[in-house]
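quick one before i forget lol
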Amino acid sequence: MIKEIILPDLGEGIEGAEVSEVSVTSGDTVSPDDTILVLESDKASMEIPAEVSGIVKDILVAAGDELKTGHLLMKIEVSDTNGEDGEPETAVEEEIEPTADLEPEISETTPIPALEDRGSMDHVFASPGVRRLARELGINLQMIQGTGLKGRITKDDLNAYIKLQMAMSSGTLPAPQPEIDFSQWGDIEVQKLTRIKRITGERLQQAWQSIPHVTQFDEANITELDALRKEMKTAGAEKNIKVTFLPFLMKATAVVLKEMPELNSSLDHTGQNLVFKNYYHLGIAVDTPSGLTVPVVRDVDQKSIYELSEELMDLSTRARDKKLKPDEMKGGTFTISSLGGIGGTAFSPIVNPPEVAIMGVSRSAWKQVFDKSSGEFSARYIMPFSLSYDHRVIDGAAAAAFTSKFATTLTDLDLFKV
């Protein structure tokens, strides 16, 4: 039986990816965990497993191809029957059933298609659902360049075309950048941005433009926490576990998020409702040679400092080696970006949608702090941090309350010993 391998959902906000490597050839024997493709998205490189045991019969993609979720990758001949009644499983394109009051869903990250005169309607390749919706909306499919298999016009292509027309009519398309010959003033060197940096930049710009950002700055006294960390670092070294400040910050963040659930929420697609999440999955920004990636650590509230440390070591290493899996980069409820190991006194991170807040941590330093009870100054280890938030959801008072609670939580050493 032939098993069709389909590109799975790559994670929140990832519309597609580029094939950087095809790891198998026709005739190869593969097992479920064998890597058949390596993809590069805006967030990381990802290995796609075979999912089944069998022999590779047809490879339908090549290095450099741009793929989207649902794309047919290859066909593998397997001995076991995976479908019902012995029939092989095949991908079925989602049909769109429009109604009189249907409004097409337009994703903020849907790629804008090229416009092309495709001639006769006989040459248009699209599913009945896409054709039906196009008729309902009065859209000529001849004007849309399909990005699906064999040039098929997909639902995303149609939605992207609608989005483009709306942007053109509202005047929101960005002005083209002027071409400048920088070499007229001296020697230059041109280096192409990595895919991760390029697409991450586009999405950060989009987030900055669509979310009303405000940043709250604060400081935390981590003198006693530093002493505890050094003790746990020594104990962890015996188990080959590297204990940094980050697991402590994650643990404290989860505690405060439970007390202030609006910071662990998201606006729904209508922008009219808040979705509160009863889980605490923290995205951790990791700097890699290819750009910034944000793997997600799940259920932070249920893990110990040593467990979080081990997981961070693993995720950070695999992020830099481009070995992260798609599921490890989605589902985050709150993000922490720590520059403490690099430097700086403060910065304003950009919210990572659909989250509503992100914490930025800068380098800690020893400072002379006045103690009212003793009337004297004493050296204290102070950590500067910031909270950028979506002002549609979080107001200034709530943000200030969050940073205050977070600073106080870091002084509760018993919290980190369990």
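fyi The domain at 197-416 is CATH 3.30.559.10 (Chloramphenicol Acetyltransferase).
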